Amino acid sequence: MNGCYDVIVIGGGPAGLAAALEARRTGAARVLILERNNELGGILNQCIHNGFGLHYFKEELTGPEYAGRFIAELEGSGIDVLLGAMVLDFNDGKTLHVMSRSHGYQELHAKAVVLCMGCRERTRGAIAIPGDRPAGVFTAGAAQLYMNIEGYMVGKRVVILGSGDIGLIMARRMTLEGAKVLACVELMPYSNGLNRNIVQCLNDYNIPLYLSHTIVDIRGDKRVEQVVVAEVGPDRNPIPGTEMVFDCDTVLLSVGLIPENELSRKAGVQIDRRTNGPVVYENMETSLPGVFACGNVVHVHDLVDFVTAESQRAGRAAALYAQNGEPQGPCVEVRNGRAVNYTVPQHIRTGNVEKFVEIFFRVNNVYRNRVIRISSGGKVLASFKREHMAPGEMEKVAFPKALFPQIADGEITVSVEEEEAQ
Q1: Are 284 and 313 in contact (CB under 8 A)?
Q2: Whose CB has fewer CB within 10 Å in the chain, the N or C terminal residue?
């Protein structure tokens, strides 16, 4: 395997597949995908439920089917793939130190790199649940892997902590396999999952969702025997006297995802503390010139279709960088205002935008009948009405290039405001 490439993509999940294919289509002569697992597809391989592809393919697919569409495109594309390959670091942004079963240690060189490492789950240790330490406590994704890939049933009587999408989907999956899901418990006063998953995975199977509740104790010797759930107040602390005891043998944790950026940090990529992902420009370039990032390694997406679109943008930009170098032009900073947790991208190079730039963000609570406003220098430049917004659903607005001349002081602010009375 020749060690010099136009574009090297780290990660062979949905982000990496889309980025690599788009880089090749954009003219990158030599493209390589590095994947640490022994097959491509990433997390989609264990997501055997449907609901994927509604936006991108305009049809409903399972996770493996969605990944398979892109894997099939690799045939005859000229893209190299190295499986079982772990990237140890890249010290200057363009030289990658890689270990693989088939080639041992290698130094690979690229004109552009695309980071597509995805994300990982928060564990029990990360959220410090008190109680005993018996077997039977799993992250929802680990339980999904055991059931859908390895063929093991992880439990019979289940309590789920957190209402993230993976936890909701596993509530349905375990019910269909004969388990009894006793409750889904959520610390916040709103669910962190998509509304369709609440309906299809909880409501359709009469699984109760306890909002503003959390697990305050796990009891058991060798295996989980009971969990104690209590209501929490506005300060998110348990309210004495509200405890409920569930007899169960399994606890699933669906308490958030964290972008996988140890490699990025080691390389010196600037990380946004709000997203735990790289700070990026409009074309998904990071703070290191020629190093791009996309998908869940940047910010956690709720739909893989959005990952695909974002990754195609990154792959296209990486190929253009390999051919033409760094884009030039003035830069606008994107700030998050009222009710907005974060924005992606964080920087916009105005000369690199053709017609509009898409800005993604999440709100910090559930809102109805609000207006998304993009303002600069105290002046509202654009407004977008929304009937419903929730933290579990990513928002997107398209900011037209025609409005760039009205930007003051080199920055814009995205905020959520109440509708003005007519």
Answers
A1: yes
A2: C
Classified by CATH at the fold level, domain 4-120+258-327 comes out as: FAD/NAD(P)-binding domain (3.50.50)
State the Cα angle at 269 between 264 and 270, rounded to 5°: 125
The residues, any chain, with a CB within 8 Å of residue 271's CB and separated by 6 or more, are 261, 264, 265, 277, 278, 279
Q: φ and ψ at 321, to 5 degrees? A: -65, -45
pLDDT tens figures, 267-305: 999 999 999 999 999 999 999 999 999 999 999 998 999
Measured distance CA(347)–CA(32) in Å, rounded: 28
Q: What angle do CA 137, 141, 142 make, to 5 degrees?
A: 50
- Tell me the pLDDT tens digit for each residue of 130-172: 999 999 999 999 999 999 999 999 999 999 999 989 999 999 9
Cα 296-298-303 angle, rounded to 5 deg: 35
**In the chain, where the domains are located:** 4-120+258-327, 123-255, 346-418
